[in-house]
Structures are given as C-alpha cells and as structure tokens.
C-alpha cells in the first residue's frame, strides 16, 4: 500500500487548525463543523489504511532533511502493529469526542479557538503515532505538550486554569529533559535514532541502563507517573472534552505507546523501576479517588491508577498487555469523562458529586452508558476492561507477589470509588436544585456515549470492531478461569456492591462521616506539599543566595569596579596626561612619540 494516505492523515488536522485559528476564530460554528468533519475524515482514512494492511505488515516512508555531526537527520512514518493500534484508538475515539464537543461547547464564546486547539492536538498526537524515530517523536512530543497547555488554559480568565496549565507544562518539561538526553545518548551510542536501526543495533549491543532510565523520564512526565503525576488532576481545569481526549484516551497513553515501541532499549533495572512505581501509583491513586468530591478529579485519580497498571505491565515485560489496557482504557475512560461532561451539562455546570443524586431517572441514556463504562472500569468479566486488567493481574501474580498485592489493592479501590460515584451521582434523591432540574443532553453528546460506552466499552475486549492490523501485537482474548486474578476481581466487585449500600447511609460522604482522619489523609495532596517544601525551603533560599552573588559580584565587583571602575581610572589618567591643555606637555608627548616611531623604524626596538 502507498504511504501517501498517511500524509493526508497527518496534515488534514494541521490544515483544520490553521483555518480555525487564522480564519474562523470568531466564527465558532464554522470552526466546529470544519474540525469535526476533519476528525471523521481522518478516522475514515485511518480505517481505510488499516483495512488494507495485513496483520504483521508494516508501512514505511522516510526522507533525509539534513545531517548533524555526520549523523543523518530523517523524518518518516512507520506504521507497524504498535502504531496501527494507536492510530485506530486516536482517530476513532478522537472523532467521537469532537462530535461531543459540539454540544458541550455550544454556548462558549471561544469555540473557534477551542476547535482550532483540538485539531492542532490531533496533528501533534498523530505525529507521535506515525513517527519512525525518536527525533520526529520528540518534535511532536513537545507540540503535544504545547497543545495541552493551550487547551487546559482555555478558560484563561479564571483563577484556576492558568496555574493548572503552567503546572502541566512545567512537569512535562522536567520529564522531557531526561527524554532528550536519552535521545542524545542513543545518537552517541548507536549513531541512529530511528526505531528500525535502534532495534538492530540494540540486538548486537544491549542498551546501557542509563539510556533506559533517561527515556523512561519522558514516560513519567507524559503519562503522569510518580513523582511527576501531580499535574494530571489539576489539568481537569480544562473543558471536559479536553479531559476525555488528552488526559484519558490519547496524550497520557503516548508514554505507554513510546515505551512499548522502545522496549528493546529497557534494561532489567529500568523494568523493575517501572513495575514498582506503576503498581504503587495504581494503589495510591485508586484510594485517593475515594476522597474527591469533584466528579472530574475523581476520574482523574482513576486515570492515574490505570496508568499505573499500564506501567506495571511494561515493568513485567508485557508490552502487549500494556497496549491492550491502553486501548481498553481509552474506550471506557473516554466514556466516563464524556458521561461526566453530560452530567455537568445537565446540572448547569455543577461538578460537586455531593450536590447531585437521582440523575438515573432524569438522564437515562447517560446513566446507561456511564454504568456500562463503570462496570468495564471495574473489570466485570467479559467486558472490555476485564480482558486487559485481569490479564495484567495474572501476569503480576506469576512474577511478583508484592506487585500483585498492590495491583489487587488498586482493583479493590477501583470498585469502591466507582460504586461511590454511581451512588452519589445517579442514585438516591436529588441533593440540589440543579440536580432536580437536570435534563438529558442533546444527541451530539449522547451518540458518542452510546458508541463508546454501550458499544466499545463492552465488546472491544473480544477485538470485535477493531481492525485486524491493529490487534496483531495484542495477545489472544483471555478466557475466564478461576485463579488468583479472578478471585481478586470477584472479591472487588462484591466489595463494590457493599459500597453502594455504605454510601447510601449518608446524605453527604459516608467515608468522611465515618473516618474523617482517613478521608483527610486521602484528600491531602502530599506530593504537592513536598514540592512546596522543596521550593520554599531549598530552592528559594538557594536562588536568593545566587541573586545576592549576582548583584554583589557580577553587577557590583565585575560590573562597577572591573568593567566600570578600571576604564574610568584609565580615562581620568588619560585626561590628565594627554588632554591637560598645556603646550609644553603636548610638545613633550609629541617628541616622545616621534622618538618611539623612529626607534621602531630603525630596528632599535
């Protein structure tokens, strides 16, 4: 198959972004129509390419654009099994999120800017998906971070969105510093940065552990792993479709996709770090979700937990399971965020779950899709999430009992916070006027919920509806059997049913009423406190010392004394010696100069 369709897949969103930003910024409806049409066109082209790609077949294109120190700098595409799966997830889920945005952002005065940002983001993430090497990946990697900044700060006139966007941008730059150093080390070690050459070179000369650790930094930042996870929950300050597209389905999954693509560069020490960091993050984030009242922040902690599960799968050496969970998570977590957006829209932009309740009868379609995605999130057998999550639990049980225990705790926490969310949002009595006046969302918002929630959140685990080329790198769908993983899953589901009754006992939050100390411990942002202490007690005093030295030595001694004082002294001496206004003095200097020149000409000096 010719690679020319890949040019269209990559560049159409760029054209849409340029048109929305330059021509349609004040015409929100036209910008929305163009962006949505482009997203569905790209999804259609992607399906056409994947349909013509046989399982195991790759599609490549490359062009050299220059040389750096003798090393060729190339750009190109590599559509292999990993990229095929990510391409389908990004384009398919992204198209439905674009459609959802039409209804959700209908009354927003900056729709043109919003849809331009969505299209630009699609261009950036597709560049990561199709890139054939680390250099091109890094260029689009940085563009994805910029787009995330733009979309998180969409409500820039509020007091919460700009700090959240800055936090996301800075945290990702910290991780990207290690990533770019890893790319430099690849060039120094192997003389190449494209994936095919790196794989061949790594087979002959295994990569040093430091290289893997540096590349892992990019994954830690982009996929919100410990200790750079702090930005993801604050990123919920952006519009809900942004949370669904960037922070649930695509951007945070880019780190998992990258690590799966370069797993041949990851030494055993790197995998061990990935395993334990991911498993611990899954357990901790799942528990923290129990102490959130904002529906989007609760889902953000859920996303952190599932990203930890993917990281643990990578650490187990099962990149195939990490990719499988990435895809399944994209379907059900995008549905959950879109369902939360439908609820927020129906409740007149209220996000506090303690002020909701009773929405199941008022928003039946939203409730049905949200419930299906929630059950998939909880790994109910034979739903999409079960095929990937239980497979990872089973792999952990056979490799590391400690990691298995942490992942089992994460599975229990998932069922607990999911039951809490269903109980507080949809069941019981309405607890506010907004909840009592809630209404179902328009079809542009409910249709994506039906497709992603009542469709792919249920059936995707069997690979039904997925292109054959996209599932080539995935394991065969797991069959149900009794074992440690299934026992943990069933026990977690039973505890979730108990949580439904537990949270029905209180008009507020039952856990906060029953155990306020534990609730406060889970609610508190401990890593933010640690970063605050570091900045206030270590970084700021060090900066003040450096500022003092800068003022005293550079501006004072060097600037005023050395750079200013000495020339001033020389100028004063020159004025006294050469510009005294005395005829006798001028004649003496003239005679001395003439004698010096004569001596030079005669060779006496």
Written description of the protein model:
With 605 residues, this protein is mainly alpha-helical. It is built from 24 helices and two strands. It has helices at residues 4-22, 28-51, 81-104, 111-130, 134-152, 161-190, 195-204, 209-222, 230-234, 240-249, 251-261, 268-288, 295-315, 319-346, 364-377, 384-397, 401-425, 433-436, 443-459, 484-503, 510-514, 516-523, 526-578, 583-602, and strands at 59-68, 71-79. The protein has a two-stranded antiparallel ribbon with strand order 1-2. α3 (81-104) runs parallel beside α14, α12 packs parallel to α17 (401-425) and α16 packs across α20. The radius of gyration is 30 Å and the shape is globular.
Features:
mainly alpha, 605 residues, 2 strands, two-stranded antiparallel ribbon
SSE order and pairing:
Elements: H1 4-22, H2 28-51, E1 59-68, E2 71-79, H3 81-104, H4 111-130, H5 134-152, H6 161-190, H7 195-204, H8 209-222, H9 230-234, H10 240-249, H11 251-261, H12 268-288, H13 295-315, H14 319-346, H15 364-377, H16 384-397, H17 401-425, H18 433-436, H19 443-459, H20 484-503, H21 510-514, H22 516-523, H23 526-578, H24 583-602
Helix pairs in contact: 1-2, 1-4, 2-3, 2-4, 3-4, 3-10, 3-14, 3-19, 4-5, 5-6, 6-8, 8-11, 8-12, 10-14, 11-13, 11-14, 12-13, 12-17, 13-14, 13-16, 13-17, 14-15, 14-16, 14-19, 15-17, 15-19, 16-17, 16-20, 17-20
């Amino acid at each position: 198959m010719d690679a020319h369709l890949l040019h269209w897949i990559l560049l159409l969103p760029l054209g849409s972004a340029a048109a929305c930003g330059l021509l349609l910024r004040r015409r929100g409806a036209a910008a929305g129509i163009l962006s949505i049409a482009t997203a569905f066109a790209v999804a259609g082209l992607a399906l056409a390419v994947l349909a013509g790609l046989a399982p195991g077949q790759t599609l490549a294109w490359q062009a050299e654009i220059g040389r750096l120190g003798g090393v060729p700098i190339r750009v190109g595409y590599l559509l292999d099994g990993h990229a095929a799966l990510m391409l389908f997830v990004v384009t398919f889920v992204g198209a439905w999120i674009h459609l959802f945005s039409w209804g959700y952002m209908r009354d927003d005065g900056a729709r043109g800017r919003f849809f331009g940002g969505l299209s630009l983001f699609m261009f950036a993430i597709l560049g990561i998906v199709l890139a054939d090497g680390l250099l091109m990946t890094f260029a689009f990697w940085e563009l994805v971070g910029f787009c995330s900044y733009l979309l998180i700060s969409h409500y820039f006139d509020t007091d919460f969105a700009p700090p959240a966007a800055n936090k996301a941008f800075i945290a990702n730059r910290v991780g990207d510093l290690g990533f770019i150093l890893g790319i430099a080390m690849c060039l120094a070690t192997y003389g190449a940065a494209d994936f095919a050459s790196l794989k061949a070179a790594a087979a002959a000369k295994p990569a040093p552990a430091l290289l893997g650790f540096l590349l892992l930094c990019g994954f830690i930042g982009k996929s919100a792993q410990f200790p750079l996870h702090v930005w993801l929950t604050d990123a919920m300050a952006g519009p809900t479709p942004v949370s669904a597209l960037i922070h649930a389905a695509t951007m945070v999954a880019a780190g998992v996709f990258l690590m799966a693509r370069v797993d041949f560069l990851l030494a055993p020490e790197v995998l061990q770090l990935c395993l334990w960091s991911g498993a611990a993050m899954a357990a901790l984030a799942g528990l923290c979700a129990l102490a959130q009242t904002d529906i989007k922040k609760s889902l953000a902690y859920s996303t952190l937990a599932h990203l930890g599960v993917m990281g643990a799968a990578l650490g187990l050496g099962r990149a195939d399971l990490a990719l499988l969970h990435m895809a399944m998570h994209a379907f059900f977590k995008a549905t959950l965020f879109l369902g939360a957006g439908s609820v927020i829209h129906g409740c007149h932009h209220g996000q506090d779950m303690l002020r909701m309740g009773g929405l199941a009868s008022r928003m039946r379609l939203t409730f049905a899709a949200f419930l299906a995605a929630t059950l998939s999130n909880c790994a109910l057998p034979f739903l999409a999430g079960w095929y990937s999550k239980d497979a990872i639990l089973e792999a952990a049980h056979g490799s590391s009992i400690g990691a298995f225990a942490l992942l089992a705790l994460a599975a229990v926490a998932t069922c607990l916070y999911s039951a809490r969310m269903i109980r507080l949002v949809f069941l019981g009595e309405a607890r506010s006027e907004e909840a009592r006046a809630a209404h179902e969302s328009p079809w542009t918002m409910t249709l994506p919920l039906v497709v992603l929630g009542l469709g792919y959140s249920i059936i995707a685990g069997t690979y039904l509806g997925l292109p054959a080329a996209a599932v080539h790198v995935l394991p065969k769908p797991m069959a149900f059997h009794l074992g440690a993983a299934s026992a943990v899953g069933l026990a977690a589901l039973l505890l979730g049913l108990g949580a439904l009754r537990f949270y029905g006992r209180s008009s507020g939050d039952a856990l906060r009423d029953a155990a306020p100390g534990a609730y406060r411990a889970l609610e508190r942002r401990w890593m933010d406190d640690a970063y605050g202490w570091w900045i206030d007690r270590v970084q700021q005093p060090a900066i003040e010392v450096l500022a003092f030295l800068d003022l005293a030595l550079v501006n004072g001694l060097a600037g005023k004394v050395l750079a200013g004082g000495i020339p001033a002294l020389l100028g004063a001496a020159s004025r006294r010696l050469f510009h005294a206004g005395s005829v006798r003095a001028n004649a003496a200097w003239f005679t001395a100069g003439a004698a010096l020149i004569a001596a030079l000409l005669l060779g006496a000096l």
